[in-house]
Amino acid sequence: MRRHPGLRLLSEEHHYALAQARDLRLVGSDQCELSPAAVLERFLVFWDEGGHDHFRKEEELLLPLYNRYAPVNTVEMLGLFIQHTQIRRQVMLLRTAAELQEKELIELLHKLGQDLEAHIRQEERIVFPLVEATVPDDVLGAFESYSLS
Ligand SMILES: [Fe+2]
Ligand SMILES: [Fe+2]
Question: Is residue 147 part of a domain?
Answer without folding.
Answer: no
